[in-house]
Protein 1
Amino acid sequence: LMTAKSLASKETVNGRCWFYSDDDDGISVYLNRELHAMNTVVAQLQTQFQDYLVSLYQQGFLDNQFTELRKLQDEGTPDFVAEVVSLFFDDCSKLINSMSRSLERPENVDFKQVDSGVHQLKGSSSSVGARRVKNVCISFKECCDVQNREGCLRCLQQVDYEYKMLKTKLQDLFNLEKQIVQAGGAIPQHFPSYTILRPDIRPCLDA
Amino acid sequence: MLEPELKLLYRINAQSWKDINVDVNHKVESRLKLKFLELELKLLHCLLTFTKQNVIEFDPLHINPNFSISVTVSNHMMEVCNCIEPQWPADELLMKYQYISDFFIAVAYFSIPLELIYFVKKSAVFPYRWVLVQFGAFIVLCGATHLINLWTFTTHSRTVALVMTTAKVLTAVVSCATALMLVHIIPDLLSVKTRELFLKNKAAELDREMGLIRTQEETGRHVRMLTHEIRSTLDRHTILKTTLVELGRTLALEECALWMPTRTGLELQLSYTLRQQHPVEYTVPIQLPVINQVFGTSRAVKISPNSPVARLRPVSGKYLLGEVVAVRVPLLHLSNFQINDWPELSTKRYALMVLMLPSDSARQWHVHELELVEVVADQVAVALSHAAILEESMRARDLLMEQNVALDIARREAETAIRARNDFLAVMNHEMRTPMHAIIALSSLLQETELTPEQRLMVETVLKSSSLLATLMNDVLDLSRLEDGSLQLELGTFNLHTLFREVLNLIKPIAVVKKLPITLNLAPDLPEFVVGDEKRLMQIILNIVGNAVKFSKQGSISVTALVTKSDNRAPPDFFVVPTGSHFYLRVKVKDLGAGINPQDIPKLFTKFAQTQSLATRSSGGSGLGLAISKRFVNLMEGNIWIESEGVGKGCTAIFDVKLAISNESKQSGIPKVPANPQHVNFAGLKVLVMDENGVSRMVTKGLLVHLGCEVTTVSSNEECLRVVSHEHRVVFMDVCTPGVENYQIALRIHEKFTKRHQRPLLVALTGNTDKSTKEKCMSFGLDGVLLKPVSLDNMRNVLSDLLEHRVLYEAM
C-alpha cells in the first residue's frame, strides 16, 4: 500500500497526463498506461485516417497529384496541403460564380469567358489532384467548344456539386489529421500502418 | 470236198527249190480232173503251211495235158510234211500250247511294268527311275515280241514278219542296255541295304538314349518341383516336412528322416520322419564316425542300413534292408549367410538327412538320384536360411510397430497438451484482458473525478495492481510465445535516432522527478535509417532504461548507442562479425544506482527470479522483463549482459543486436530541410515562377521550396519581365493559356539578357504533350518543356539535368 507521501499527483505536459510517484512501481504503471493509451488512441486515429484517405482515392475524388502534394508538406510547411486546397476551393467558388453569371442569359452567352474559366478550373484541379472536378471540366470544355449552353449549365452544376463534396471530404481528413497530432501521433505518410508501441495490448473494451 | 475213199498221199521230195514237179501219170476222166484239182489245192495248202511266209506263185489251175502239175516255188526250204490230214496233226497241239503260253507271257510281260509304275508312283522316293524306264521298256518289248509271235503261228504276211523282227531287235537292244545298267545298279542297291541296316541300328541306339534322357528329365522335373515346394513356404517346419514328403514321393523311398542338432550341439535329434507320424524322440551323439563322414563332404554318402541313424524302426529280421544314403544339410545362421563364400560355408552346424530305399526291392542308388538328393539338400539349406531371415525381420518389424504405436500415443498426448496450453493462453489472452482493461480504464476515469484522499488512495492501489497484473499477463504471454518459437520479428524500416529520442521522451518525466539526469549519446556513425523490428527494439531499450531508472535512487543514467566493431570487448562466447549491409548496434545503459552482486548476475535473465537484497525493496515487478528482453535480443541475433562491480556501485547493461542498413532513405513522416541531396545542390537556387493560375502557382512554388530553392512568383507576363533578373537561374513559365503571348516572353527575356551566361534558363510548363508544342517552344528559344502536373521526382531530375547540361528536352 502506498503511504500518503507517495500520493500521485497529476501534471499535464504537452497535452498528456503524467503520473508519477515516489514509489518505483509508479514507473511501470505509468509506462504501461502511457504506452497503452498511446497505442490505443493514436493507432485508432491513424487507422481511421488512412482508411479514409484510401477511400477517397478509391472513390476517385483524389489522384496521384494529391499524393505528390502531400509529399511537399514537411516540418517547414506543415499546412501546405491545407493552404493549397483552401486556395483551390476559393478559386473554384469564384470561377463558378463568374461562369454562372456568363451563362445566365441565354441570348448573350460569352463562351470565350466561360472557356477561359473552365481552362483555369481544369488547371487548378489537376494541380491539386481533384480528379472528379477535373473530369467534369473536360466535358465542360467540350460543351463550351460546341457552344452548348444547356450542356454548360449542367456541367457547371456538376462542378459545383463535386467541389463542394470534395471540400467536405477534405475537411474531415484534415480534422482527423489534427486529432492525430493532438494525440501525439504522427500523420501516416505511407499506406502501411505506422505504429510504434506494444501492439499486443490491443484495446479490448469492445472486444 | 474230198471223198473219203480217195485218200491220196503224196510225198513231195524237193531236191531244189526251184521246181517242184508233180507228175501224175494217170489218165483220168473228168472225175479225176476234179480230184487233181483237189490235190493241187491240198498241195498248195501244204506248201503254204510249211513255208509259212512265202508267197507262192503258181499257175492257177493249169492242167497240163500230161496231167503234170508244175508248181513253182521260190527260195524256201520246204519240209516234209504230212499235210493232207482230215484232222489236226499232233504237232498242232504243241503249237496250240505254245500259242497259249505266248499269249499269257505277253500278258504277264505287259502287266509287270504296270505294276511297277503303280507301286513306284505310290512310293514317294525311288532313286532309279531311269533304270525303271529301261526295265519297263525291256519288259514291254519282250511282251510285244511274244504277242507278235501269236500271229506267226499261222501264215503271215511280210508286214507281220517285219514287225516281229523290229520288235525282236528292239528287245535285244534294250535288254542288253538293261543288263549293262544293272551291273552298276545292283551294287548300289546292295549298299542301300547295308545303309538301311546301319540306320536301323542307329535308331535303336537313339531310342535307348532317348529313354535315358527322358528319365533324367523326369528326375530334373522332380527336383524342380521339389525345390518349388520347398521354397514356396517360409515356414521352417513346412519346409522340412515338404522336403521329406516330396523326396519320398520322387524317389519312392521307404523312409526319409531328418536329424537336427540339439541346442547343445552334442547330439543329433530325430526331428522329422516321413512315414512315422510320431517319431520317437531319440538322439544319437554327434561324434559318430559315420556322421562325421557324412558331415565331412557335401556329397550324398551311402551308409550302412545298420548304422544308428538309419535304424529308425525296430528291425524285423526278414527284411533285406534297402540301401541308405545320408547327406548333410548346412544350417546357416543369419551371420553366416555371406553370398561370396557360399561354397565354403563357415558354419559348423549341420542337420542330417537320411534316405532309405524300400527293402526287398533290390533297387540301387543311381548317380542321378544321388545328385538329386544333394541338390535338394542345398535347396533346403537356402530355404531354411531364408526362413530364419524372415523370422528375424518379422520380429524387428513387430518391435518397430510397437515402438511406433508408443511414439504415436506420446505424440498425441503432447499435441493434446500443447493444444490445451494454447487454448489456455488464447483464453487468457482475450478473456482475462478484457476485464483487465475495463478495470484499468475505469479506474483511470475514476481518478479524474473528485475523490477524498482515502478514496484516491484506494483507487490508486486498484490501478497499480491491475496494471501490474496486465503487465504480468503480457509478459507471460510474450515469453510463452517466445519460447514456442512462434514469435517472429516484424521487420520494417525506421529511424533509429528518433527511436532513442522517443524512449528518452517517455522516460524523462520520471527521471526528472527522481532527479536522475539522463543523457543520450548517439555515435556519429550510427546509421539513421535501419531495418529491424522497431517495436521490439523499443521494448528492449525501454525495459533496460526503465530498470536503470527504477533501481537508481541517485546518480545519473547514460544511454550510449554505437556501431560495434569486432575488436570491442564482448563476452567470450560471442563473436561479432558485421556482414554485408548489416551491422551490430550496441547500446550501453550505465547507472550509478544500487548495483548488483556479481554472483546474482546469471540469475537476472532467468524468468521469475528476482534479486533480493537488503538494500533494495522488492520492486514488485514480475521479473520477466529481462528474460523477455533477452529473448528478443536473441531473436535479433544479438547478446545481452550486465556488468556490475558490486552492490552500491551501479551497473551497466549492454546489448548488441543485428540490424540492417536501409537502402532507401525513407523519410518517416518528418522530412528534414534541405531535401536529400542529388549531385546538384538546389539549396538557395533562385528561381522565378510565372503562372496565371493561383493554385498551380502555389503548387509549383511548394514543389520548388521543398527542393530547397528560393522561389519568386509572378502572375503575369509584364510582372515577369519586370522582376526577372540575372540572379534568377531558372524561369518556369506556364504556357497553358491559349495564346501566343506566353511565348513572346521568352523572346523578350532573350532580348533582355544578351549575354548568354547571364540569361536564366527558360522552362515551359504545359498541359500538352504533342510535338507542335515542343517545336514551338524550341523555336521561341526555350530551354526546356515540362508536363503539368509535375511530380517531385520529376522536378528534381529536371532541375539537376538542366543545371548540368543547360538544356532539357526530354521531360515530356
Note: The first strand of chain A starts at residue 9 and ends at 13.
Protein 2
Amino acid sequence: MADVKVKVQPPDADPVEIENRIIELCHQFPHGITDQVIQNEMPHIEAQQRAVAINRLLSMGQLDLLRSNTGLLYRIKDSQNAGPVSFFLSKMKGSDNQEKLVYQIIEDAGNKGIWSRDIRYKSNLPLTEINKILKNLESKKLIKAVKSVAASKKKVYMLYNLQPDRSVTGGAWYSDQDFESEFVEVLNQQCFKFLQTKAETARESKQNPMIQRNSSFASSHEVWKYICELGISKVELSMEDIETILNTLIYDGKVEMTIIAAKEGTVGSVDGHMKLYRAVNPIIPPTGLVRAPCGLCPVFDDCHEGGEISPSNCIYMTEWLEF
Amino acid sequence: MTQAEIKLCSLLLQEHFGEIVEKIGVHLIRTGSQPLRVIAHDTGTSLDQVKKALCVLIQHNLVIYQVHKRGVVEYEAQCSRVLRMLRYPRYIYTAKTLYSDTGELIVEELLLNGKMTMSAVVKKVADRLTETMEDGKTMDYAEVSNTFMRLADTHFVQRCPWVPATENSDPGPLPPAPILVISEKDMYLVPKLSLIGKGKRRRSSDEDATGEPKAKRSKHSTDNKEPIPDDGIYWQANLDRFHQHFRDQAIVSAVANRMDQFTFQTQTSSEIVRTMLRMSEITTPSAAPFTQPLSSNEIFRSLPVGYNISKQVLDQYLTLLADDPLEFVGKSGDSGGGMYVINLHKALGSLATATLESVVQERFGSRCARIFRLVLQKKHLEQKQVEDFAMIPAKEAKDMLYKMLSGNFISLQEIPKTPDHAPSRTFYLYTVNILSAARMLLHRCYKSIANLIERRQFETKENKRLLEKSQRVEAIIASMQATGAEEAQLQEIEEMITAPERQQLETLKRNVNKLDASEIQVDETIFLLESYIESTMKRQ
C-alpha cells in the first residue's frame, strides 16, 4: 500500500468562511483587532490564506485598515460609512485605487474641506495625478470645490452633498466671499439707536435710580427680537450674531455690558446668565491735545524751528487760526 | 530730560524771566547739578550775573541747592517745576472759583513772587482790590487775612522751609549754604498777626482829579515804618494740593458724564463722589491708590446743605456707583451702613485710557478707535482675530493696524513656535502698553505746546511795528486826555491807526488769545497723563 499523502484540509479553510469568521471577530471587538488576534482564533489557517481573506475584505470595503502603535489594526466599517462607499463602488467599478484613496481622504475632512496640497501629503501621489483625479471626481459630481473666505485663492474640496462649514464661508456676514460692511454698519446703528431710546425712556420715567438704571438695560434677547422684527436682514440672524454686533458697539465705546445670573427658565438666558447692554456716554470730552493742530498733524515729527516745516509757517495753524 | 522738555523750559524761562535767567536755567537743566563757578565758566556769563539769575530761580523754587562733601554747594534745576509755570492760569482760576477775587489775587501774588511773607501779600492784595472797587470803598486787611488763613487751612498755601534757630550760643563757622527744615505740623500754621489797616489806592482819594494817567505812577505813602512782624516766615503756593483738586475735578466730571445721564435729579452721583473726595482731602495722602473708607452715615451727614435726598436714596446711589463697570467706587465693608472707597489709581488709569482713545479717534478715525479699544480690552490679539471681533474687512483692518503701529499706539509681541524665530512660524500678537503709549503722548504734548508758544511769539514779532505804533498812539491819547484836549484832536490822533490796521490788530489779538487758550487745553491733557504715570510708577 502506498502512502497516500493526504493533505489534511483544515476545517474552515473555505475562504468565505474565513472572511465571515474575521468579520465576526471584528464585530466582537469594535475597536479593531490585530493580526495576532486572528491568528489566535484560527490557528490552523496559514498566514497566506489569512492575508488573502483580509485583502478581499479590505477591497470590498468591509474592513478598515488602521495603524496603531502596536501594529496594524483591522476594524469593521460601520454601516454608515459603508453606505456611500458601496454607492461609490457601484458607481465606479472600474476606477483605480488611487481615486478611491483620494475620495476617502476628502470624505474624512468632513465639512471643513481639504486643500489639494494636503491631499497630496496624505496620499503621497504626484501632483499631476491628484489634479487628474480631482477633475474626474468633480465631473462625476462626487466632490465639489468651495472657495475659502480666509484666503481667496485657496480652494478646498469636500463631498458634494455636504454644507460647507461656517469658518469657510464666513457665516452670516459674508455673501459670496465678500464681507458685507454696509450691512454690518446698518445693524450697528440700529442696535445703538434701540439702546439709546431705551435709555432715554428710562431717564424720562423719573423713578428711583435703581429702577431707572435697570430699565435702561436691554438683554441680548430683546435686541435680537427687535432686529428680527425690523426685518432689515435678508439672512436669518441668530442671537450670537447679534451679540457680535453688540460687541462691536462696546469696542466703539458707546455701549457697556454686564452679565447677570439668570434662572434657567427666563427667556434669553444662556447657561444660567444673561448679557445686558446699555448705551453710555464717553467719560471725557475730546481731550485738549486734539484741539490744537499739533495733535492731529501728520508731519509732526518733521516740524522744528528753522526747517521747511516749522511752527512759524505751519499751514495747519494758519487755517486753524482763521476759523 | 527730553529735547522737547528742554525746549519748552527754555521758552517758558525766556518769556517769564528773560535771556540771562533762561541761559543759566537751561544750562542747569541740561547738565544736572553744578557748582557756581562751573556754571559761570560754561555759560560764559559773569559771576555776578550768574548769582543774580540763581537768586531769581531759587526764589521761584525752580532751582534747589545742596551742600556736597568738601563744602561745595551745587545747584540743581527742577525741570518738572519749570513746566508747572504753564499751569499758573489754572491755579489762579481755581483759587478764584473757591475763594473769589481775594483768593485769586493772593494766589496770583504768591505765584508771581515765588515766596512772600503774609503781611506783604495781604497789603498788596488789599491795595489791588481797593483799586478795582468804587470810589470811597476800601478793602480791609482783616478780610484778606481771613481768606489767607482759609487758604492755609485747606493747604493751598504752605510755609517755606526755614533756617532752624540754633540752640547753642557758639555759632561756629557758618555752613556754606543754609540747611532749610520744616516740620509737617508747622507747614500750615498761620502766625498770629494783627494786621490792621485798609488797602490804599495808588492815589489818595482826597484829590479831585478825574482820571489817572497810566504812565505816571504816584507813590503811595508807606506809613508802616515799624518792622514787619512776621519777617522770615515765607509762604508759597502748594502746587500738590492744587493738583489734588484738579484730579478730584476730573473724577467728578467723569462720573457725571457716565452716570448722571440716567438719573432724574441731575448731578446726584457726581455730588456724592465730590462729597466723598472732599472728606478725604486732608486725610488721604495725594499719592495713595485708595481713599480712606468712608461710611455711608458719614457721607450722608457731609452732603452739602440743600441736597435733601433721603438716606435710602443715598444708599441706592452708593450701590449703583459701586456696581458700575467704571469701578471708581468700591465697597470695602458693611459697618456703619456700608464702607465705600474711591479707587484713585483705577480712576486715573481710566482717564488716561480715555485720553489715548480720544487721540486715536480724532487722529485716525472711529474705526481705528474701535480696533484700539478692542485690543485694549482683549490684551493680546492676532491679526485674524482683530478682523473677526471688530467686524471690519481684512484689508482695511490691516491698514489701520499698521497705521497705529507706526504711530506707536500699538505694539507687536512675537511668540515663536520654533527656536529659529522664522517669521512664517511665529505668532504675532497686537497689544497696547498703556504706560509707554502715555509717555509717548506726553512727549508729543510738550512739543505741541512748544510749537504753540513759538507760533504766538512769531505772530507777535510779525506785527511788532503795528503794536508799537498802537501803543504810542494810546500813550498820546492818554496824555492828551489828562491835559484836557478837545474831542476833535482826540479823534484826529485816533485816526492815525487806519481801519485795516485796526482789523489787523483785532486779528492779532484774537490769534494770540486762541493760541494761549490752546496751550492751557493741551496742559490739561498733560496733567492727566502725568498723574497717571506718576501713580503707576509709585505702585511699582
Note: Residues 181-204 of chain A form the longest helix (24 residues).
